[in-house]
Amino acid sequence: MSLAPKPTKKEIVTAFRTREILAAARQVMEHRGLEAVTMEEIAAAAGVAKGTIYLYFQGKEDLIQALISQVGENLLKDLEAILATPDSPAEKLEQAVVMLLGYLERERTLFPVYARDMHRGERAGRQGNRPPLQDLEEKFVALMTRLFSEGMETGQFIDTNPRLLTFLVRGLVRSVGYYQMEKGSTDAVKEALPLILKLLTSGLRRQAHPTQR
């Protein structure tokens, strides 16, 4: 079994500096907004010269894309951790929904760009040009589909198309994001969480037969 090559000092420094710049950008964007923030402000928050940022990112749009990818990768790791627990599929689904809405609430600044890019990405994917965001989305779909399949195999969920269920749940979560974006509401997630859990609980769980109760 071959081991992965040890990262060079330059690669370590690059990764560290990239994380610093992204963390600074996130902080400034949350206060100033995506449209208003400038690369100069991000550079100042990161404690580097403006020119240094352009060694890592081509411009603000490239930096925002890196932030979205970072969020997506972290979300996938959290979802994988949930699926790896010994909890029941129903419990895992509830934990996944809570986690997804938590990301939606924390990343409300980035959501409008995510929504825009998803629309563009879906069109590009149909033309054979698959963007990185689409790859992250497909990994998410695969993980959630596996969860729904597990629930059906154990008899906890109704028998139906697990991939379709994944798209339906993803659509519910996105809808909360659109509502949050349209209304500028900070309570959108708090309002939506119990409703979504209620819908999933009443609609997905297989009801016990009267003789089994």
What string gives the helices and strands in order?
HHHHHHHHH
Rg from C-alpha positions?
Answer: 20 Å
Number of strands: 0
Number of domains: 2
The average pLDDT is 86
Tell me, briefly, the overall form.
globular
CATH superfamily of the largest domain: Tetracycline Repressor, domain 2
Indicate the CATH architecture of the largest domain. Orthogonal Bundle
Fraction of residues in helix: over 70%
Major sheet size, sense and barrel closure: none
- What is the level 1 CATH name of the largest domain? Mainly Alpha
User: Which spans of ≥5 residues are poorly predicted at pLDDT below 50?
Assistant: 209-213
Helix tally equals 9
Describe the 3D structure.
With 213 residues, the protein is mostly helical. It folds into 2 domains: 1-57, Homeodomain-like (Arc Repressor Mutant, subunit A), CATH 1.10.10.60; 61-212, Tetracycline Repressor, domain 2, CATH 1.10.357. It contains 9 helices and no strands. Helix 4 runs antiparallel to helix 5 (89-106), helix 5 (89-106) runs antiparallel to helix 9 and helix 7 (132-153) packs across helix 8 (162-183). The longest helix has 24 residues, at 9-32. The protein is globular and about 60 Å long. The protein starts with 8 loop residues before the first helix and ends in a 9-residue tail after the last helix. 20% of the residues are buried. The model is unreliable at 209-213 (pLDDT under 50).
